[in-house]
Design a protein that fits this description.
Blueprint lengths: L17 E3 L7 E3 L40 E5 L2 E5 L15 E13 L3 H5 L3 H18 L4 E16 L4 H12 L7 E6 L5 E3 L2 E12 L2 E6 L6 H12 L5 E6 L8 E2 L2 E2 L4 E4 L20 H6 L8 E6 L4 E5 L10 E5 L6 E7 L15 E7 L10 E3 L21 E3 L5 E7 L4 E6 L8 H10 L12 E2 L6 E5 L2 E6 L3 E6 H9 L15 E4 L3 E6 L2 E6 L3 E6 H9 L15 E2 L6 E5 L2 E6 L3 E6 H10 L14 E2 L6 E5 L2 E6 L3 E2 L4 H9 L15 E4 L2 E6 L2 E6 L3 E6 L2
Parallel strand pairs: 5-6, 5-7, 7-10, 11-20, 15-17
Antiparallel strand pairs: 1-2, 3-4, 3-9, 8-9, 9-10, 11-14, 12-13, 16-23, 17-18, 18-19, 19-20, 21-22, 22-23, 24-25, 25-26, 26-27, 28-29, 29-30, 30-31, 32-33, 33-34, 34-35, 36-37, 37-38, 38-39, 40-41, 41-42, 42-43
Length: about 700
C-alpha cells in the first residue's frame, strides 16, 4: 500500500471558474474571473455559530446519496445516513482496543482561495479530534484512543459544489490514501456546510472503510463540530444511528417484520433520539445508549445486567447511565417475541448533563431498530408518546408511575425514581392486568370529545392508580374513585395543582356543565374545579371551598373563582379571589368570605395584616335600614345603603356599642376613624360623633 503522505501533494492546476451554489438544482459553473488568492469568498462562521439556530442555514435532514457504500452524513441540524451496506457492513464489530492514528488535512478546493483555506480554524479542527478522543476513550474504559500523527494542506481538483461524497473520493484518490487498520483520514474544506446534488446544509460526512478504519469530511468549524466529528467516529467504531419508534396510532411497541416494523402506521424516526450521540446533531455529546454500548464492546463489560427471559417478575435498580457504576443498566428478553429490550436511567450527569433534562430525564427503553443499520447496530427508543416523532420530541423517557408494555405483553413498571436510581419491576406476559384497564376503556366509550388514544394505559400511579392519554384529555382511575375523564380548562387547572399527586387528589366525578355563565365543574377527592369560558377554570378546596359553598357556590354572592388559592396572609392563612369578593381562611377562625363594601373597608385597614386581622364569621344582614355587618378578630365592620362600610375600633367601638349600635341614637358610622394627633381621634355617625382622648376616653355627642 502507498503510505499517506506527510507532506503536501503536488498542487493541481487551479480552476478558472467560480462555481455557483444552487439551492435545489444540480451544480453548474458560471464563467467569471477567479478571485484573488488573498480574498475570502466564503462565509466563515465563528465557533459560536449554531446552524440549528440560524434560519438561513437550511436546517434539515441530510439527503441519501444512495450510490456510495458506508456513508453517513449529518444534515444541518440533523445527522442523516446514506448508502448502508446490507451485506453486513465493513464497520461490523471488531476487537476494540488500540490507538487510531489520525491524518488531518485542510483542503483548498478548486474555486476557493488561499484565504478561504487559511480561514479554517485549525485549533478548532484539532480540538474536535481531541474531543472525540476524550469521548471514546471514556466510553471504552481507556481501550480506544485517537491521536493526530499527520497534519498537512492539500490543493484539490474537487469543487465545493460537488457532492460531499465526491469531494471525499477525489481527495482520497489524490492523496493515494488507503484504509489501514487503526488509521483514519479527516479533512476540512472551506465552506460553512456541504451539499449533495446541489442541496446544501450537511454538517459533515463519515465513511466506514474497514473494521477499524474510516474517513471524515467536515466544513468550517462551528458550534456543532465536536458533536459531528465524535458522531462520525462512532460510525468508524461500528455503531449506527439512534432513532425512535414513531406511530401515528400511538403504539408503544411494534414487532419486527424483516427489515421493517410490523405495523404500517409505524416507522423509524431516524436520528430522533436526542439523548444519544448517534442521534440528532447538537452542541453537547450525550452518551451512546446501552444497546450500542454492548454492540461496540465498549466499557468494562459489567455495565449492563442481563435479566434473561422474563418468566417471573423481576426487580431491578438502575443507576445513572452516564455514570460509572457496574450493573447500572439492564436488558431482558421478551419470552414470547424473543426480542431484547434495554433499560437505562438518564440523569444530568457526565456526558448527559445537557440533555437529560425535562422529559428526557428518566428511564429510557430501547431495542434494535430493524429498518436502519446492519447486524443490529442501530437502536430505536420506545417513548411514552410515539405520535411525536423526530428531533422535536423532548419527552423520550418514562417517569415514576408509568408502565411500558412490549407488543408481546411483558410489562416494565417504573416504581420510583430519583437523581441516583430508579426502581423497576419487569413483569412476565399474562400477569393480571389492573382492573383500571377495562374501567378506563368503558369511561372512554361514554365520553365524547376525547378522541383517539395517544398512549397505552399507564399504571403504578400514587395509590395504585392508572391513566391513559387521549387527543382531547386524560382518564384517571383508582379503585376508590373509578375512571374519570378530565378535559380542557378543567384538566389544565388540575395540572397546576400537581394532578393526582397534588392537593386535590384524583377526580371523583366526570365533568358537569350547564352552570351559570356557561360554566362546568368537576369534583375531586379534596375539592373541585369550576370554570366558565369568560374567566377560566380554578380549583377550590378545604375551608375556602366550604365557605364559598355557604354563599351558594357560583350562584351566590361571590360568583365564580377568578384566581387560584394563594398563600401568605398573616397567621399562616390563605385566600382566594372570586368575582364579587374573596375568601380568607386563618388558623383558629376558619374561612369566611368578604365582599362588596365590607371587603373594601377591610382592605383599607390592611386586610388580615391590619388592626382587624382575619374575619371570624360570614356577613350577617337584615339589620335596620337594610344593613349588614361582619365580625373580625379585631372588631367588626357595619354597612348600610347610603352610608357605606366604616369599621369602629377599640374604645370608640365600645362607646358605640353602649349607645345600642346601629339601632341607637348614633345610627351607623359614616366615616372611618380620624386621628388628628396621637391624643385625639373622632368618628362620625348618622346621629353625631364619638371623640376619644386619653383623659376623657370615648365620648359620644349627638346632633341636635
Amino acid at each position: 500500500m502507498t503510505a499517506v503522505p506527510e507532506e503536501p501533494v503536488t498542487p493541481v492546476q487551479e480552476a478558472t471558474t467560480t462555481p455557483v451554489e444552487p439551492a435545489d438544482a444540480a451544480p453548474t459553473e458560471v464563467e467569471e474571473a477567479p478571485a484573488a488568492q488573498d480574498e475570502i469568498t466564503s462565509f466563515v462562521p465563528d465557533l459560536t455559530w449554531n446552524p440549528l439556530d440560524d434560519p438561513n442555514s437550511n436546517a434539515r435532514y441530510g439527503d441519501d446519496p444512495g450510490d456510495h457504500d458506508h456513508e453517513h452524513d449529518h444534515g444541518s441540524g440533523a445527522a442523516a445516513m446514506s448508502g448502508l451496506d446490507d451485506g453486513g457492513g465493513l464497520a461490523a464489530i471488531a476487537p476494540r482496543s488500540g490507538e487510531y492514528k489520525i491524518t488531518l488535512v485542510t483542503v483548498q478546493l478548486t474555486g476557493k482561495t488561499v484565504a478561504d483555506t487559511d480561514a479554517i480554524n485549525m485549533t478548532a479542527a484539532r480540538n474536535s479530534i481531541d474531543s472525540a478522543n476524550n469521548y471514546w476513550r471514556s466510553a471504552s474504559d481507556g481501550k480506544i484512543s485517537l491521536r493526530r500523527v499527520n497534519e498537512f494542506r492539500h490543493k484539490s481538483a474537487a469543487r465545493i459544489t460537488d457532492s460531499y461524497s465526491s469531494i471525499m473520493d477525489t481527495v482520497t484518490r489524490e492523496l493515494k490514501w488507503q484504509a489501514r487498520p487503526y488509521e483514519s483520514l479527516v479533512i476540512f474544506v472551506p465552506h460553512k456546510d456541504l451539499s449533495y446534488g446541489g442541496s446544501w446544509g450537511i454538517l459533515g460526512g463519515g465513511f466506514t472503510d474497514g473494521p477499524t478504519s474510516g474517513r471524515v469530511i467536515m466544513p468550517y468549524p462551528s458550534a456543532l463540530t465536536n458533536n459531528v466529528v465524535t458522531h462520525e467516529f462512532g460510525h468508524v467504531l461500528g455503531v449506527h444511528h439512534a432513532n425512535t419508534l414513531a406511530c401515528n396510532n400511538g403504539r408503544q411497541d411494534v414487532p419486527r417484520n424483516g427489515r421493517s416494523w410490523g405495523d404500517g402506521n409505524c416507522w423509524s424516526a431516524e436520528y430522533g433520539d436526542v439523548t444519544d450521540l448517534m442521534g440528532y446533531a447538537q452542541v453537547s455529546q450525550p452518551m451512546i445508549n446501552s444497546l450500542m454500548w454492548e454492540y461496540g464492546g465498549f466499557g468494562r463489560g459489567d455495565e449492563i445486567q442481563n435479566l434473561g427471559k422474563i418468566t417471573n417478575d423481576r426487580q431491578v435498580t438502575l443507576r445513572p447511565w452516564a455514570g460509572r457504576s457496574a450493573n447500572r443498566a439492564a436488558k431482558f428478553t421478551d419470552p414470547v417475541s424473543n426480542e431484547v429490550y434495554y433499560l437505562e436511567l438518564r440523569t444530568p450527569e457526565g456526558y448527559d448533563a445537557a440533555t437529560a433534562v425535562g422529559g428526557n430525564r428518566g428511564v429510557k427503553i430501547i431495542k434494535q431498530d430493524p429498518v436502519y443499520g446492519w447486524d443490529g447496530n442501530a437502536s430505536a427508543a420506545l417513548t411514552p408518546n410515539s405520535r411525536i416523532s423526530g428531533y422535536g420530541n423532548k419527552s423520550l423517557t418514562w417517569q415514576a408511575g408509568q408502565t411500558f408494555t412490549t407488543h408481546a405483553g411483558t410489562r416494565v413498571r417504573i416504581d420510583s425514581m430519583d437523581n441516583g436510581s430508579a426502581q423497576i419491576r419487569v413483569m412476565a406476559p399474562g400477569a393480571a392486568a389492573s382492573p383500571g384497564v377495562s374501567a378506563i376503556a368503558a369511561a372512554a366509550s361514554r365520553t365524547p370529545g376525547l378522541g383517539a388514544t395517544t398512549t397505552g394505559v399507564v399504571c403504578g400511579l400514587v395509590r395504585g392508580g392508572c391513566y391513559q392519554k387521549f387527543q382531547g384529555g386524560d382518564i384517571h382511575w383508582t379503585s376508590s374513585t373509578g375512571a374519570q375523564p378530565t378535559k380542557g380548562g378543567i384538566r389544565t387547572a388540575w395540572g397546576t395543582t400537581g394532578y393526582e399527586n397534588g392537593r386535590l387528589g384524583y377526580p371523583t366525578r366526570a365533568e358537569e356543565c350547564g352552570l351559570t355563565g356557561g360554566g362546568c365543574y368537576q369534583r375531586d377527592e379534596n375539592g373541585g374545579i369550576h370554570g366558565t369560558p369568560a374567566i377560566g377554570a380554578r380549583p377550590t378546596r378545604g375551608g375556602i371551598r366550604t365557605a364559598w359553598g355557604t354563599t351558594g357556590y357560583e350562584t351566590g354572592g361571590l360568583g365564580s373563582p377568578t384566581g387560584s388559592e394563594a398563600g401568605g396572609p398573616a397567621g399562616g392563612g390563605c385566600y382566594q379571589k372570586f368575582q364579587a369578593g374573596d375568601t380568607h381562611p386563618a388558623p383558629g377562625v376558619g374561612a369566611h368570605p368578604t365582599r362588596a363594601g365590607i371587603r373594601t373597608a377591610w382592605a383599607n385597614t390592611g386586610y388580615e395584616r391590619g388592626s382587624l386581622r382575619s374575619p371570624t364569621g360570614g356577613e350577617v344582614c337584615g339589620l335596620v335600614k337594610g344593613g349588614c355587618y361582619q365580625n373580625f378578630q379585631g372588631g367588626a365592620i357595619p354597612w348600610a345603603p347610603g352610608v357605606g362600610a366604616h369599621p369602629p375600633k377599640g374604645a370608640i367601638r365600645t362607646a358605640w356599642a353602649n349607645t345600642g349600635y346601629e339601632t341607637g341614637r348614633l345610627g351607623y358610622p359614616t366615616s372611618s376613624e380620624n386621628c388628628t394627633t396621637t391624643t385625639r381621634c373622632t368618628q362620625t355617625y348618622e346621629g353625631g360623633t364619638i371623640t376619644w382622648t386619653p383623659t376623657t376616653g370615648a365620648t359620644p355627642r349627638y346632633n341636635r
